[in-house]
Amino acid sequence: MILITGGAGFIGANFVLDWLAQCDEPVVNLDKLTYAGNLESLSAVQADARHCFVHGDIGDGDLVTRLLNQHQPRAVVNFAAESHVDRSIHGPGDFIQTNIVGTYSLLESVRGYWSALPADQKTAFRFLHVSTDEVYGSLGKDEPAFTERHHIEPNSPYSASKAASDHLVRAWHHTYGLPVLTTNCSNNYGPYHFPEKLIPLLIVNSLAGKNLPVYGDGQQIRDWLYVKDHCSAIRRVLEAGRVGEIYNVGGWNEKANLEIVHTVCALLDEMRPRDDGRPYHEQITYVTDRPGHDRRYAIDARKLEQELGWKPAETFESGIRKTVQWYLANPDWVTHVQSGAYREWVQTQYADQ
Ligand code: NAD
Ligand code: DAU
Questions:
Q1: Residue 90 is part of which domain span?
Q2: CATH number for the domain including 101?
Q3: pTM of the shown model
């Protein structure tokens, strides 16, 4: 079996659902259930004996050690993190605690378990750390996309905390021999995405008749990947990645934010036209820019493609259409995640806009 952390979040929940749809290997899913963790995203596997949910913190060494010894996983996949850049600007403390101190604690628990495994299991064991392209910093308009050898130049408290965790993972391999793999992926989108992030926020705000907040000039560029393609990349790296290596994950889909906003508006005009017949793009509002806002991210995914034969299944056009359809088909999920905690965040972030 495998142990995954953060599996009630956006990518982790998609990973669990896809994993169990594709194989029978059981999953133990350790998640703290912060505001971003949502068991409703896992309702399809609630009664599935192959899925064991455990409520807890990656930083709780006793709990993690107990789980490892009890379930004897052949791999750990670490999704658990604080993941929202704007929240890290308002309050970096949780990011330092989970992303750095929590990853350190998890590495130590895993190292203790791994060290005591019989030789063959020790060789086969993997610790896969899920990271982000944001650790590489920001690119100029004409610079080549990030390769795995790009400088680490994080600019936000979130990306700095992820970069720190990547460094710890690397060091635990070089110093202790822990068989690690690291993936650095670009922006994901798709089902179960918490509506504080750009694409789901645009969908839910459009439908609610609210403003569509565009930071600054809206010309910042992100490289978008459908979440299920990120999950297939992680499965492939876990299966065949070379120990100690980093694999960048991306779909060659660079888009300016404003283009994303117009694409979502156009899909909603087609699938759920406004009652007054007017276009959704009339709801666009330019708001104060994010402090230190990275201008451009772009992933060079050739290593993963050429070495491991991975390819994304979705184009941006097919993935974004599926995403809008999913949100239209799942209004209850949206309503339930827009809890008190969500409303407080929206009040903090967009109060003056
Ligand atoms: P998310 O915020 O949606 O989910 C994070 C999950 O981790 C939540 O379920 C939360 O409850 C859990 N968690 C937080 N702190 C924890 C702790 N101390 N112990 C146990 N569980 C804890 O995040 P996501 O978007 O699903 O991202 C998952 C991972 O992928 C993160 O490491 C993130 O840095 C990375 N990543 C995300 C993206 C993206 O576009 N979302 C892209 C590249 C990499
Ligand atoms: O690149 C990978 C990263 O992508 C992940 O590591 C992070 O966990 C994930 O949150 C995401 O970070 P971003 O900051 O790129 O995503 P976000 O959805 O917050 O913002 C996308 C872009 O849209 C960014 O340039 C900021 C802008 N934006 C965002 C929001 C929420 C707006 O213009 N308006 C908004 O209201």
A1: 2-189+226-252+294-313+340-349
A2: 3.40.50.720
A3: 0.98
Q: What are phi and psi of 81, to 5 degrees?
A: -170, 160
Per-residue model confidence as pLDDT tens digits over 86-141: 999 999 999 999 999 999 999 999 999 999 999 999 999 999 999 999 999 999 99
Domain count, the chain: 1
How far, rounded to the nearest angstrom, does the alpha carbon of residue 125 sit from its chain's CA centroid? Answer: 23
- Distance from Cα 209 to the centre of ligand 1, integer Å: 29
3-class SS of residue 158: helix
Catalytic residue among 31, 57, 82, 134: 134
Q: Is 35 a domain residue?
A: yes
- The total of other beta-carbon atoms located within 10 Å of residue 62's CB is 9
> How far does the centroid of ligand 2 lie from the alpha carbon of residue 173, in Å?
31
94 burial (CB, 10 Å; 0-12 / 13-18 / 19+) is middle
- Using most ligand atoms within 8 A of CB, pick from 3, 4, 11, 100 the residue to mutate for ligand 1: 11
Cα 33 to its chain centre, rounded Å, is: 15
Residue ranges around ligand 2 (CB below 6 Å): 83-85, 132-134, 186-187, 197-198, 201, 213-215, 220, 222, 257, 290, 297
Supply the pLDDT for residue 187.
Answer: 98
Distance 199 CA to ligand 2 centre (A): 9
**pLDDT tens digits, residue range 165-185?**
999 999 999 999 999 999 999
In order of 119, 284, 308, the CA distances from 134 in angstroms are: 36, 26, 23
Q: How far apart are CA 297 and CA 28, in angstroms?
A: 33
Q: Is residue 56 part of a domain?
A: yes
Place of tokens 């993936």: 183
166 part of a folded domain:
yes
Taking only the tens place, the pLDDT of each residue in 51-72 is 999 999 999 999 999 999 999 9
Residue 243 included in any domain = yes
